[in-house]
């Protein structure tokens, strides 16, 4: 088990009455990820807001209608994550004909993951590989080796085919390209937003993170194609087809945003089975 | 109430053992659309198949693993459709802050509806219009007037921004562009596949049809941006974000397809309240 | 006649030996634009460089191989521009069949002006208009009214179809879109880089400018689709199909650039027929 | 020397008076390619037409204004081609700083060759290779091995980045991708249309061909990235930045086209030094 402390601050200037925000900043509540403490502090006393629990992998949506002026949102949480671990060599693919109907959606193309255009490409590179977890891992490695991480090198409309062509991006772009290549290889794959414990400080201040889940052997396994974090320390906030579904903030109305401030600390308490997140050769699943 | 008879034949040549098909060819079963008779005939005696009911607007997925050789799928159905009708002038928009969480997904961009890129465009054309059903209708009209219907003018990767640029397409392209413009205007919109009763024979033989639902006044209202069918005669097969979700056939494996053959007839039985589909100024909803 | 004084400073930090620069920063020398004084100052004493005159509308290419370290390039010029002026109503289009072969190139699509995709669009909006200068002007007006000027809203790969979709850009994007729409309307059009006398200081410091020439009545007439400068005060630096041909600086090698500094002053000397640039209803040509 | 006999027939139905055609169907006249016989037969007695010689690599433009009705254009030519041959290992690259100004254009991106987007991609694959002819050849081989030839798999707006993503195309697409990758590697490259002596009949009837020239060692060397013809038997028709410049037919007006019919025969006359085109390891140049 790992135990993480999240501290998150968002700051905005709201220019119009009734600007609407949809946030996915709460730690998801799932069988594998439990929240033992959390607090939410919203600076505007008269803002209307509510937190809605979704059935989608335990995510929670904070809906907020703000008033003009400064808006600060501060969220703290203590979260315990257990991981289902498996030997990569023992994880098989699920044939398309046996995919559950609700998983099937994640094999289709989406806004930022145009897998339909990558069928020949994926076929040429990955079809001949042995089936199983290793194939997804090969896709993950390919993306990591062929795309360069560079801050501010992409924008809100950058999609997987752009990254495939331009070979540069941030974690979200790595995730989109890996997802698109998995789907093009008939592996259901989805996008998870979370936090990036263990990221290299040289890449900039701590930030939201985007990573990938691939459906293999009847579960969703974690992959971190940008390789910028320690997978065992990734905390799930929201899960979707791609970044279009799970932006940490979707805003309607005239608003100026500041850079979010995020801090993630890991606790260690070996006596109670709490370890620091560490790299492992095992396949990890939290869904 | 309208009553439709659907007759649908699909023919394939399968080259590999274990080719997998996912069909959305069954009439959806909903509160507004009831199936009083249906039959499904699959030519391959040893093919494995099943029909799975989804919670998604009553659609049913036919999953089939075929053997090499000819494959014919024949589906017949008798379907009654009642319509919730409303005066367009009385249908208001739902403010973003009050959209149900499950509807919110339909305001996000998707593979073929890149609404994120159309914000300025939609703002310039539609933001000043009176709020309500009329605004969705104005978008529908705009698409119909600015795009030309031409068979085979688009392909499987054609998306809304392409249609906006090239101004030509088929019903699916009209639907994608209308959906993208609605979402860019903060109106949740989704893609429905069905059949096209009343289509102009000059446009070619009867075919699957694609149309649009926009969420207004707490319901999903029907729009037919290509204007090629009589909305009251549209039978719902499947519902999704765009064509990526609800292709009538998704095929994995080496298969050659023939042109589908579709026939839709409407019954009339005034004594029992069954009328022929006709054009109406009323807003229609079946979801 | 107008008389302009240009002062231009470029600053770079060069990281590798032998970084190559191609600059189009000299005032073009043409029948209509004469340089009465100029000076070029290059800070690196041992850099190799030369200025090559091209036959292409009098432009001059400064080729420079720099050494590691700071590099400053300073160019001063005094330039007189006479304008061929004509009444817009008297300028006819040249039928495609009578276009000179060397003009024909400017009717084809180019990197940033994908006119081939805009045929239906241009047809719908502009085909019915009266032929002549007024049609080009209508295209210019359409672009100005439908695109919003916003600094840093586009990047080096933004092309005309992107601007048509996103409706925002800088002067280069306005120019590309106008050029693409002209070509799609069978009007040869090309891209000119120059300086922007008379630009609104609210849009930022003085900068390079991009504008458009359309071939009408046997000449190339000036258009300024972004409307940010006074056309009579535009000084030609280079001329090409689009920005790919005539970037003010093309750089090979590891180099960091600073924002260019540009100043343009107009002289007035009515006794000698030199006026300040002013807006006019006349059609202007300098080529 | 090789000697080719070309026979070419184009058929159209013209719907409007004054439809304009620009054809590049004449064999180019250059130092290396001489025309010893040719005839041009145009079926419409009253059509106005002329052939204009361009300075651009000897190409000739046939301009024709047709009348409504059937139009047949038949061109016959006997053409001798000598090749400048060199040992690949002895051909060096020309540093960017030494490229002639008129060659520099072919290092810039164009409509179908968006080399600006491929800088990282080309850098990763080809920057470390030894400089010289072999590097261009490595790019040619890469394209041939990673793209699949399939008739009708692309359309008029398919560009290099599409082919890079979708990995399928026809000879024009192979050429565009190779050109884009060369330019992204700082190798000037251009597009040549011609005929495809020696093409595999399994790929369909004889057709126009598209191939590539790369500027190396002070000359333009031939490359055939689709590998569908014998380079020594390629006859040059027109030369440009990409297909936008040198379509064999550009048509303005309402016209229906039939498939062109092309036949190319090679003569052999060893006594006079005329050989059949054959594959060779030597680098070939005809410009």
CATH architecture of the largest domain in chain A: Roll
- Highest-level CATH class of the largest domain in chain A: Alpha Beta
Which descriptor suits the 3D outline of chain A?
globular
Order of helices and strands of chain A: EEEEEEEHHHEHEHEEEEEEEE
Q: Which pair has the most extensive contact?
A: A-B, 30 and 30 residues
Q: What's the domain count of chain A?
A: 2
The biggest sheet of chain A, with number of strands, parallel, antiparallel or mixed sense and barrel status, is: 5 strands, antiparallel
**In the CATH scheme, what's the topology name of the largest domain in chain A?**
C8orf32 fold
How would you explain this protein's 3D organization?
The structure is a homotetramer of 287-residue chains. With 287 residues, chain A is of the alpha+beta class. Chain A folds into two domains: 2-82 and 248-272, Immunoglobulin-like; 86-245 and 277-285, C8orf32 fold, CATH 3.10.620.30. Helix content of chain A is 16%, strand content 37%. Chain A contains five helices and 17 strands. Chain A has helices at 101-104, 119-126, 133-146, 160-166, 171-184; strands at residues 2-14, 19-23, 33-42, 48-53, 60-66, 69-81, 84-86, 148-149, 168-169, 189-196, 208-216, 219-223, 234-240, 249-252, 255-257, 261-267, 283-285. In chain A, β11 (208-216) and β12 form a beta hairpin. In chain A, α3 (133-146) packs across α5 (171-184) and α4 packs across α5. The radius of gyration of chain A is 19 Å and the shape is globular. The relative contact order of chain A is 0.23. The mean pLDDT of chain A is 95. Chains in contact: A-B, A-D, B-C, C-D. The A-D interface holds A 117-118, 120-121, 124, 146, 148, 161, 164-168 and D 117-118, 120-121, 124, 146, 148, 161, 164-168.
